[in-house]
Design brief:
The complex is a heterodimer of chains A (about 120) and B (about 120). Chain A has about 120 residues and is mainly β. Chain A is built from no helices and eleven strands. Chain B is about 0% helix and about 50% strand. The chains are: A mainly beta (about 120), B mainly beta (about 120). At the A-B interface, strand 5, strand 9 and strand 10 of A face strand 6, strand 10 and strand 11 of B.
Amino acid sequence: ETGVTQTPRHLVMGMTNKKSLKCEQHLGHNAMYWYKQSAKKPLELMFVYSLEERVENNSVPSRFSPECPNSSHLFLHLHTLQPEDSALYLCASSRGLAGEATGELFFGEGSRLTVL
Amino acid sequence: AQKITQTQPGMFVQEKEAVTLDCTYDTSDPSYGLFWYKQPSSGEMIFLIYQGSYDQQNATEGRYSLNFQKARKSANLVISASQLGDSAMYFCAMRGRTSYGKLTFGQGTILTVHP
């Protein structure tokens, strides 16, 4: 069992649907992240949460809405997406945010999203 | 701003041989960390090795070593004694002291290990 679990692993949705991606970390970490991995592009940071508070929002369209109800869970709510939003969405966690206390990021296996 | 460049889209290596994956970086942060991750076809990003910008020695983790040349701003990953299971995408990443834990990734290098 990995320390960071993402569900669903695969999701196909239409442009008018509303769906959510879920991430759960079992590592006791305080920071969680959403990254987007599109084909032939570097991973792009979308959101950063520290102790359930959002500390960074990287100019992500409002059709992506994150939620962090506690330090172990992170959601990405999706609505009225576009075909170009099709990508692998990776969740990650780390011990903290600042300096050496951050440690490495631990990633989940990702949720492969296809928007038709 | 931070930038990571991986100039090798794909690399091939024979099983049991060593391979070097290139990574150069650019940052204005005086203190930063460099990471290598492996991403197999399953999608999960697996942490391999870390090098701090003030570390005096190159980092090593088992068969992985990081050839850190600060003046050249390079952080190449060396995999010794390649195994078939090493076939995957490899990403170089960095984090600055002020970047709130977020990583900046390179484009990645696909490594294929031949038997």
